User: Fold these one by one.
Assistant:
Number 1:
Amino acid sequence: MTTVDFAPSRPATVTPMDARPLTCSIGAELHGVDLAAVSRDDGLFAELKSLLLEHKVLFFRDQDMSRAEHVALAKRFGSLEDHPVVGSDPEYAGLVRIYKDLDSPAEHYENAYHCDATWRDNPPMGAILRCIDGPEVGGDT
């Protein structure tokens, strides 16, 4: 019988990222990680991808990324695609801006994010969400 080890291996040359599991089965919060640097560094990206495979969902606080760096990081995981309903940011293909301003109707923005592409023959492997201005309370999704 042949066995295959699916446990992700971490590159020996990369300092381990500080991953703190959030539950016993899924999710981790990573500390000491600059996602803008991950978008440019093969070793850091390999470590991040390994942790994503291990924890399934990753959370990062206090990231200072531009939209261009956000897209560059996402492209490390594969090709980006336009949202099938709302399209993409005109400057950054594959980036969907979800925002609310004073003129936005309230009923369109509460619990609005979801993935519209899981029905596709080749659904996306995931999403990289970036919250710029979150609520003081609530928002625990």
Number 2:
Amino acid sequence: MEFLRGPTVAQKYEGSVVEAVRAAVRGAVQMLHNQSLVHGDIRTPNIMIVDGAGRR
């Protein structure tokens, strides 16, 4: 997996935005688990956001 440089979600955004991202990630992870798929290292510092142009 490639390393992405840049701020984490918690460094770039505040409060309700961070919580909304966490909720979205939780939902996505639940969908993965429902399909018997597992990701081993999902935590706040590993959540990166891409801009609208698809750049990371």
Number 3:
Amino acid sequence: GHYMPTTPTPAMWLVIELVDAHGALMGARYAHRIGRDIEYADGAWIEHADTRIAPGAELAIARAWRDPRTKHVTHARITVEVAPDDYYTRLYERQLATRLPPARRALYEAALAKARAAVYVAERRLVAVGN
């Protein structure tokens, strides 16, 4: 088996939203990043976090929702978003936060737009919850 995601370039987001019977968000949303958070700096790779899921492992999330609107919750909307170019998205954002010549800035902006546009929903489920 392989860790999920396998390489450091993509990331997945597990998004949990509590919604009412009409699908309206009831003030409760949580997003958990799944992947490796690495950066190349000063001639070396630095790993800030590794939240990948190991083969055969599970991810358990327990949250306490305090928004008063949660009393109207009927479902949890669970979404798995995939960002295939997550590493590059963060790299381009860091570069764009610096001073760049206009031509280089335009290239980074175009690359960032393309990376952000590649994000997709792999799975979405509506799960009934009790109050």
Number 4:
Amino acid sequence: MKRLIILIVLFIAVFVGKSQGVNVALSGTSQEGNQAIIDFLEENFDVTVTFGDYSNPANLPADTEVLVIGRVLGSWAYANADNSAIFNALTIPVVCLTSYVARPDDGRWGWHSGPTAGFYSLSGDETVVTEAGAGIFGTVGPVDWWNDASWSFSAAGTGSVGDGQILATSPTGDIVVAYWKAGDQSGTGVVFGSDRLLFNVPDQGSGNPVDLPNTPEGIQAFFDALSLIFGPGYGPYDPLVTPENPDGSVGRIVKVSEDPVVWEVQDVFLNFKAPPDIDKERGYPVNPDIAGHYIYLQTGAPEDPNLYLYDYVMQVHAEDPYQTNPEISYGPLSSTLLKQATTYQWQIECAVNDGTGNPLEPGDPNNILGPVWSFKTASAIPAIITSPVHTLTDASGNATLTIETGLVANHYRWFKVVGQQDTAENEEIDDIMLTDSGIFSGTTTKTLFITGAASDGSDDARVYAIAYNGDPEGGGVPSAPSAAAWFWYPRLVNHYPFETTYEVEEVTITPDIVSGYDAMLLSNDTGQDIPVLAAGMPELEGDFALKFDNPRGTDPNVADAQYAQVSEGWAGGYKDITISAWVYSSGGSNWNRILDFGNDTNNYMFLCVNPGSVNRQVRFAVKVAGNEQSVSSAAEALPDNTWVHVAATLTGTTGRIYINGELAGTNTSMTLDPVSYGPSVNNWIARSQWGAGDGYFNGMLDDLKIYNYARTTEQIAQDYLGIQGGWVCNYELYDLPYDFNGDCTVSLADFAEIAATWLDSYRIYPD
């Protein structure tokens, strides 16, 4: 008889004579506030929990094998300067259950409980992502994964703080695994007994007790994560639904009728492992008291969250209990039950032997009810799993763009965007379906080939793909379009020599001599003053530079408001970029923008002088959706009243600042790029997106150039040396421990410095 199970309690377990297992110290300031966690641990794992305030890890019980941090309020204590050395010296696993997780600037790793002003010092991380975490973070190496603007993870794949998010780090701080989805321990880099898990339970608010995750997915991720520390627990574990498709769905999609067209999901099997022996000393692979397993499954009906008893499978015990196989496979599930593209939850209730060899009835409190797992069935509608990425062609104008698709995709078409990408929402139909002609080939495959794109950028385009199940000309079922991706020929895209001006309707304009994105010379104050041409960098070709008179003076006609505005629609939303200019700073206030191209205070890129209160520092930054990343020079890098060559580059995840041809700053964790918010509308020279709160640039600019690729350290050096001559040091490659005089070469002069003190000694010997 089928029996309805309402999902109110997700875990029920009753055990007698449980052995003493892992010694857990649960740290907090209120046992009552942590009781839900204590109960969960003791009911589902072979653990002994000792509660106390262990904010100083030196006070942990001597036999502690795992440290669990439970209470929300006060969790910051584990990251403070007083005990960080003690904390990081711990070699036992650490499980943090606080609502927010962060790492301090100085490299210590810890956590805190919420967005209070005092915690801003904890933002900005240089944690190293290992290969095991690369699939989640999209990178290997240092990464800034904490966003202090929205108090959420900024790494790809983690999203905002919430149920089911887990971060595992090694004792040295390396991120090993970033996330488990329900029922899938997708991280393979966790080392039993050494790694540390930081789990985001739902935010209950400052001062409230830590509670369990409030969704089945969160509970399952929580259970799976703790299983890595405490073992598989007392219930069924290791769920696997097969066959699994590349898009994460399960089952085979089969056409069973042509007229009408009918598709079925077939061959779905439920796999799991039976619970291990409660008696850990005896240690049978399967609890010998289990007679079988009740399988519960949703119907797939909309708005019906209930699980129904679906079937029963007997547990087979070997004559030698040490040889009993814990692996259970059930299926295939009825294809008439399974709907396409539908998420089903399922659950195993392990039936305990009633003493006569028969299983206890479903729902008996002595049975072992496992966690709720889920799977999503395959669909006849094809899916594009991976979209093409923005790319630069090579010097010959060649490039490739590729998609990855799901189970039933078998035909493909590529499209060129005209205006906005066509979508059902905007009802536009302007995009052009590509054919194998001109620079395009592979237009009916997963990979689009670009061959011989024009070097002037006239062939640059944004393209996307649609996959089909069946011939699109014969009624094939289409996927949703992929994200559109640009391809660009690498080149100089904007050049403002600031040598001439012209007027249109009484507006003075200086030209972009490459792409025609000319700049209007404007002022926001009450006077008529605007930037003017003045004597430029003497060694450059031409006579003039653009002068901005913004000294923060009291004259109403000189009120820090002169700037230039590049034409709206500037096509500079590139993935890689170089900005270079000759800069003559006449001194000014904080955040003086050399250039600021964006849409608002949450989306922009800028090159500025004096960021914050750091005098004469140069900074390049990109901000997308409120997240900002930057690279800076040292202070005093840009002296006043001197012509200085300044360049900033961005490629991949690396941003660089150059001063007078030499590398002056590097950040290898810049995952944001201008194409993520472009094309932009507020494209300003000498003015900030933040308005008067940031100073207008005060001084002169000459020969401003923008490239859609990152020029190399060698190229930047040649840009400078071609004007000034002499030499510069390649600090990207510099590794000369015997360059004692700092002239970027090892020579006799360095030997002379050694020889000058040869055999000198400052030893003290006994009398």
